[in-house]
Design goal:
Its cofactor is L-ascorbate. By secondary structure, this protein is an alpha+beta fold. It has 3 helices and 13 strands, in the order αβαββαββββββββββ. Strand 12 and strand 13 form a beta hairpin. It binds 2-oxoglutaric acid and fe (ii) ion (FE2).
């Protein structure tokens, strides 16, 4: 038995469709602790989210206007989540041979009115991000609160519209799925992360985020 909840569903769905949606992935106690922890972090530690990586980063609030904060293994509760995702990484490598090398993730806070327009998280050959993960921490999310994650197919059709409810995990191939976050009508808190391969890009091994 793996420590990863609903592992078979995750593996089947990822290999069939390239994405999976897993309600109740995270135990209520853990998601609640993560939520309270993130809520308690003072405003000045959060950064305006940028687009692109390293030297090409730009802040464009027309595209996204969430605020982010990277998780670190030095914070006990953050480390609990990082360790869980590392176990998932091990299983994905063992069962789907994905060669995932590491994992990085950040809290994302979408204040009322915030959104993230249609985008890809990675571009072929230009990124070492293979799989995107999103974990939602919001309690009692209602349809009218907006903030859904919309995942699009190759022809621009809507494949999924995900309610950002506490405990739900979404995983998808970073290069394949265009997606967006619809305007959120209440505070929305999540952890977005990426499983990466150890590719060298322009001669720089494992470039900074
Ligand atoms: O929060 C979400 O539902 C998705 C966030 C996202 O697409 C991103 O941070 O790249
Ligand atoms: Fe994204």
């Amino acid at each position: 038995m793996s420590a990863i909840p609903q592992l078979d569903h995750i593996l089947d769905s990822l290999s069939d469709k390239g994405y999976c949606i897993v309600p109740n992935f995270l135990a209520e106690s853990l998601s609640q602790q993560l939520y309270q922890h993130a809520q308690a972090i003072p405003e000045q530690y959060w950064n305006t989210a940028a687009i692109g990586r390293a030297t090409q980063q730009t802040v464009n609030t027309m595209v996204r206007n969430d605020r982010i904060l990277w998780l670190s293994a030095e914070q006990a509760i953050e480390n609990t989540y990082l360790k869980l995702m590392d176990e998932l990484r091990t299983e994905l490598n063992r069962q789907l041979f994905l060669g995932l090398f590491d994992y990085e993730c950040h809290f994302a806070h979408y204040p009322k009115g915030a959104f993230y327009k249609k985008h890809l998280d990675a571009f072929k050959g230009r990124s070492n991000r293979r799989l995107t993960t999103v974990m939602y921490l919001n309690e009692d999310w209602q349809e009218q609160h907006g903030g859904q994650l919309v995942i699009y197919g190759d022809r621009g059709e809507i494949l999924e519209q995900v309610t950002p409810e506490r405990g739900t995990l979404v995983v998808f191939l970073s290069e394949k799925f265009v997606h967006e976050v619809l305007p959120s009508h209440r505070d929305r808190l999540s952890i977005t992360g990426w499983f990466r391969i150890n590719a060298s890009i322009s001669g720089i091994v494992d470039p900074p985020r």
